Amino acid sequence: MRIIRALLFPLTFLARLLAYPFRLRARRRLLKGDGWAELWIEGEVMELRPVERWAQDVLRKILRRTEGPRVVLSRLRRFVDAFVADPHARGVLVRVGPLSAGWAAADEIRRQLLRVQRAGRQVVVFMDPAAGNREVLVASAATRLCMPPSGSLAATGTAAPGLFLKDTLAKLGVTMEVAAMGRYKSAPEQFTRTDRSPYDREQTEALVHALDHALVDGLIEGGRFDADSAQALLTESPMVGTHAKAQGFVQSLVREEDLVEEVQTVGDLEEPPTLLGAGTYVDAYALRSPFARRKKRVGVVEVHGSIVDQAPGFGGGGERMAVRRAVVDDVRAALSDKSIGAVVLHVNSRGGSVTASDAIFAAVRRLNFDKPVIACFGDVAASGGYYVACGARAIVASPLTVTGSIGVFAMLPTWPELGRKLAVGHDVIKQYANAGLYDPWSGLDDRARAHAAKEVGAMYQDFLALVADARGRTPDEIHQVAEGRVWIGAEAKAQGLVDGLGGMEEAVARAKEEAGGAFEAEPVLVHALRPRPRPQPYQPDKKSGAGVIGLPSLGGALGRETQSDLPALLKLLARGEGGAVLTELVALTLTTPGPLRAAAYLPWIG
């Protein structure tokens, strides 16, 4: 591979050198247009463009397959940097559609659009077909708001509904056994209570108030709303476009076909403008001299989604996961890559497997010995997500990141009463006392509950010690802000759980400062080269018992297995009593990996 690269380098350099004058001339001609750009904000929001194998890219283009709309924040920042520095730039038309993003990502988009507004450029935002809380937060940076007459403005504020199934499960003959360390560790309460606990109500109300406050503040900061009108918007939503225009929440009602004419009117132009796509704009400004000397780079390692030990087999769904081996390989690739001088660990995860989280933590800590690692939190970095970040040198979080959730719980659904209702005979043969300790058909006795409580308590103390060591505090001090409580980013900073507030820009700047020396402006995504594992159907490990006992897991709420398995169980039970139900229930218990098995009563950290 090195020989091939050495042979190709002179050819690629010559090609870049010959093409540079023509590309430079094309860029100058391109950027001297009407001064208006067009930006699409909808779909999935990601920090960096994902690394795609060249074969996949070619195949996708041949088949003309699209991946759906998405917003890449790194490219958005590059667009804003170039746009505010361009003397010919006059304004940008922003099309805001449904966003698949959390509050932190939406706030970052708002901050970037606000930079355009404060640079004296027009920001015309078109919301279509509907705008909820996050879309309105993004649109708050507009100098002019537009929407179709039939569109929906639905900035209703934040709601946190709760569902409690204790009595429902009791009617079915199912009992949820729970051992927990942390008053605020509320995830099991939906199965063990009939209403919210005072502690869960306290933390949930604080979270709702913080998010609503951020939405109101964003509307006011954009300059088009005062405190009264912002409160009125949240109180009177949802409303159709005609009502929003009548009450002054939007400036004009425009259909998509008339957007160019709207921009012409706003920009006071003689003719309809040619809107330059933001992507084209970025690529034009990204022109690099062939003589430019390469500098060290900041690498970005992602921990996104549920943290798992292995990639799921068949039926794993399309959820993004942080697979232990893949993330550890990425961390090690950043360590061995001599062109990378510092690393940002980007965490957007609610947690997952304790063994996977600990392995990633250890790899990050090892990397931090040689190269500075700064953890950057996205929308959520709780439980195992916070755990892995403790290996970094510092933590940067968005003011609206949901983080913390340092606590432990273990839970197991048991159904001996259901067995009696269905006339199920049950017998256990064992040699040792703890064999079959957490058999859901037998239920738990006091000894089993005491054993679980002891293990959960020990794991909580280990979690406290790890966080205390990372934060330079004592376990008792961490305990005061732990107990499973979730914090919004700004509050986490006040409690000493993060070092600074901001996003990727702030994290990259910290990493460069820690490393010293000259760096490339843009960070790069680090992906180790590895073969993709072929999905395999689940096979219980009969020798080790891992398929029966399971593995301890981390999670800020119910794990993905529980979320998928328990509804399946309830659907079976809801069909009524009978042989078919019994057959499916037994099959579910014997073949399903995850917390519905006897292993479920192992700790979840979060």
| CATH C-level category of the largest domain | Alpha Beta
Q: Quickly give the structural class.
A: alpha/beta
The largest sheet, given as strand count, sense and whether it forms a barrel, is: 8 strands, mixed
Mean pLDDT: 81
CATH topology of the largest domain: 2-enoyl-CoA Hydratase, Chain A, domain 1
Assembly status: single chain
Report helical residue fraction.
40-55%
N/C terminus separation: 44 Å
User: What's the tally of helices?
Assistant: 23
Rg calculated over all Cα atoms = 27 Å
Q: How much of the polypeptide forms β-strand, as a percent range?
A: 15-25%
Number of strands: 24
Number of individual domains: 3
CATH architecture of the largest domain: Alpha-Beta Complex
Shape assignment? globular
Tell me the CATH superfamily of the largest domain. 2-enoyl-CoA Hydratase, Chain A, domain 1
Low-confidence stretches: 532-603
Keywords, please?
606 residues, alpha/beta, 2-enoyl-CoA Hydratase, Chain A, domain 1, peptide peptidase (sppa) fold, 3 domains, 7-stranded parallel β-sheet, 23 helices, 44% helix
In words, what does this structure look like?
The chain is an alpha/beta fold. It folds into 3 domains: 33-156 and 237-285, 2-enoyl-CoA Hydratase, Chain A, domain 1 (Alpha-Beta Complex); 163-183 and 408-483 and 543-606, peptide peptidase (sppa) fold; 295-405 and 484-527, 2-enoyl-CoA Hydratase, Chain A, domain 1 (Alpha-Beta Complex), CATH 3.90.226. Helices cover 44% and strands 18% of the residues. The protein contains 23 helices and 24 strands. Strands 12, 15, 16, 17, 18, 20, 21 and 22 form an 8-stranded mixed beta sheet that branches. Strands 1, 2, 3, 4, 6, 10 and 11 form a 7-stranded parallel beta sheet that branches. Strands 8-19-24-23 form a 4-stranded mixed beta sheet, with helices on both faces. The longest helix has 30 residues, at 2-31. The chain starts with a helix and ends with a strand.
